[in-house]
Amino acid sequence: MNEPKLRVSRGLAAMRLAARGGARYAASAPRLFAAAGERRQQLRDDLALRTAQDVADTLGTMKGVLMKIGQLASYVDDGLAPPARRVLSRLQDSVPPMSPELAAGVVEQELGGTPEQIFKEWDPRPIAAASIGQVHRAITTDGQAVAVKVQYPGIAETIAADLGNVALIRSLLKMAVPSQDVTALIEELRERISEELDYLREAEHQRLFAAYFDGHPTIRVPKIIDELSTARVITSELADGARYAEMLDWPQEEKDLAAETIYRFTFRSLYELRAFNGDPHPGNYLFEPGGQVTFLDFGLVKHFTPGELGPLVRMIEALCVEDDPEGFRRAMEEADFLEPGAPIATEQVVAHMSLFYDAVRERGPRTMTSEYSSAVARRYVDFKNPLAAYAKIPRPYVIVQRINLGLFAILGEMNATADWRGLSEEIWPFTLAPPTTPMGEAEKPWLASRETRSRSD
Amino acid sequence: MAGPVGCARGLRVTAEVSPQAGLFQRAAAAFAACVPVDPADDGFFGPGSVTWRLHADLSVPVSGLRSLLLQALHPLAMAGVDQHSQWRDDPAGRFASTAAYVLTTTYGDRATARAAAMRVRKVHERVRGVDPVTGKPYEAGDPALLTWVHAALVESGLAAAARYGVALTTAEQDQYVAEMTAVAELIGVPARRFADGGAPASVSELDAYFEAVRPSLATSKSTEDTASYLIGMPDVEPELADAWQVLAAAAVTSLPGWARDMYGFGAVPPGREEVRQVLGVLDAVYLGEPGVLEARQRLTLRMRAAERDQQAPAR
After folding, report:
1. Model confidence at A42, in pLDDT bands (50, 70, 90)?
2. Does B261 lie at the interface with A, CB-CB under 8 angstroms?
3. Do A47 and B297 make contact, defined as CB atoms within 8 angstroms?
4. Cβ neighbours of residue A85 closer than 8 Å, sequence gap 6 or more
5. Residue among B220, B242, B311 with most chain A CBs within 10 A, to mutate
6. What is this model's ipTM?
7. Which of A198, A410, A429, B310 is the most buried (most CB within 10 A)?
C-alpha cells in the first residue's frame, strides 16, 4: 500500500506570515504591544480572567511568547508585515484584565495577606494593564499612595515552557522580522522574557534608575517600596501626570522641554549608568509642565559592559567630533556591526550610516520630524544597500536599535526642537561640556551631588 | 462527511472572502458568522453544554482533520463524496462550509440549526449511486451512512481533546456523546435508542458502534488520494503549511490503531506540548481574522452567564 506522505517538520521553517502583503513600512511606527495594552483596560469586566487556567488558556500555548515577539520585533524593525501586526494586536486585545479576586489571590500569595490586610486602601479595579500583569492603586498603612503591579498567576511557568520550543520560536521570529539575525534575537528574547517575568529584577533596575536620578530637576523615577515587592508584585510610589496623547496638545515650548528631558534621560542612562531602558514607549511616560517627566516600567532594561559601550562611543567620537571616517569604520568593525575587510568604500559606509547621526553632527537648533524618524527606520532595514550584505546588528546592541526607531519616532511626533548636539556634548563621555540650556543649568546641583557620591563610593 | 451547505450567514461571509483565501481565513470567516449575535434561543446544546466547550477547544483543528481521515474509510461515504461533491475544485470553501454547518448546529439557535440541516438533507437527496469499488448501491440519506459520519465526528472530538485539548471527565465524555445525538437526529438519524438503530449516546455505545462497523470499512485508491490530499493540504495558507504538517501528524497519531493500520501510517507521535504550541500559533492567526475575537467573546459571555445562573439558588 502506498503510504501517504507524512512529514513532521518541527522547524516550521516556511511559516512566513511576513511574506503576505507587500507594504512593509506603515506610516506610523508599530506600537502594537503597549498601545494595545492601553486598550485592554477598556475591555468589559465580565470577560475578566478568573482563574490560573484562564490565564494559561489566554497566554499559554505560545500566545504570550508571540506577544513578546511582537514587542521585540517592534524594537528592532520598523515595519512588521500588516498581517503579523494584525495578529499580534488582536492577540493583545484578547487578554482581558484579571478579576479582582484573581489579582487579590496573587497579592495574598506574594505578600502574605489579602490586599485589605496589607494595605490601608486597595482599589480592586486595575488602573493600567502591564504586559504580563496589571496595576492597582493602593494606600499603604503609613498613608503613602502607591502603584501595585500584580503579575498574572502561573504566567512565568507557562511562558517558560513555551520558550523551550526553540524551533518554533525560530520560525516565528523569521516570520516576524525576516531581516534580522534570528539567533541573536532568540537569545535576546529569552533573556528579556525571563528578566521581565522576574519582578525582583525589574525592581532592581528601577532602584538603580531611581537612585541615579534622585534629585534631578526634571527626571522622576518612582521609588520602589521594598517590603511590598516580590518576584510577582512590585509596589512603587504612585506617580501622577498627563498622558502622552494629552501632552501632545500642549504648547510647543512645553513639548520641547519634555523632549529635552526624555533625551537627557535616555543618554545619561546609556553613557553614565551603562543601562538602557529598552522600552521608550509613550505609554511609559507621565508629563507635567516645565519638562517634568516621570518614567515608568523598567521591565526591559539592558545593561552594557564597558567593552560593549566603548565602540558605540568611539563611532560617535570619530564621526561627529574628529571627522575621522576610517576611525568610524574601525569602531564599527570592532563592535561587529561591519565585517572587517568588506569590499565597500569607507565613504559609502559613512554615507549610509551618517543619517543616524544627523541630529548631532552640528551645533544649533534642529527640529525632529516624523519624516526624519521614518527615514531613519527605512535606512535601518534597507536591504538593497550594498552595505547590507556585510552589516549586522550584534546581539548586545539589538535593544539599542530602539533609540533609532523608538526614541526618534517619539521626538519626531512631538516635533521637538533643541540643540541636540549641544545636549549630547554635555553627556558624551569624551566631551562632558558645560550646560547649553536652562535645564542643563538646573541639572548642575544634581550632577555635583552625583560626583560627590561617586567619589565617596 | 457533512453536506456542502453551511449556515446562510456563513456562506455569505465566506463568499465575501476572496476566492484565493486560504483554509484558515475561510474557516475564520465561517466562525465569525455562525456564532449568532442575537439568537432566538440557546439552540440544541446551550451555553452549559459540554458540546459548546469542546467545539471551541484548541484541539478542534486536529479533531476536524482526524474526522475527515476517519470518515474516508467507509467506502460508501467515500464514493458519495467522490461522485457528487466538487470539493476538489474548491477544497477550502468546502471545508469552510462543513465547519459552518457544525458551528451553526452547535451555537446557532434552533431555527437556524434546523434550516442548515434541512439544506444539507436536500442536497443529500440527490447523492446516490453505486460504489465502483464494492459494487454496492448507496444513498447519502441512508441512516447507516449518516450515523457513520456522525460517529466519526463525535469520536474524533473526544480523541483530539484527550490528547491535545481540554481534559474531560468520563461523565463529561458520555454527556458529549449523548448531547450530540441531537444533531444526528437533525440530519436524519432516527431518534431512537442506539440498540434500536439510533445514534450512539454514550462512550461505550460509541465503542460498540465502531466494533460493529469495522468490517464494512476499507481503503481504496480514492481513500488514499483523499488522505494524501488532506495531509499535504495544498490549500492551506503557504505560511501555515508547516504548521499543518504538525497538525496532520497529530490527527494521524490520534486515530484509532486499526484506522492507522488500514492507512499504513507509521506512528509519528509529536509531543502534546509541541502540538499545543503549534495549535496556539494557529489559534493566534485565527484570532487575527475579522470577527473571530468578538465571536469568542460572545460565547464566553453566554457561557459565563449560564454558569452564574446555575450557581444562583433556585427560586
Report:
1. very low
2. no
3. yes
4. A26, A30, A32, A70
5. B242
6. 0.84
7. A410
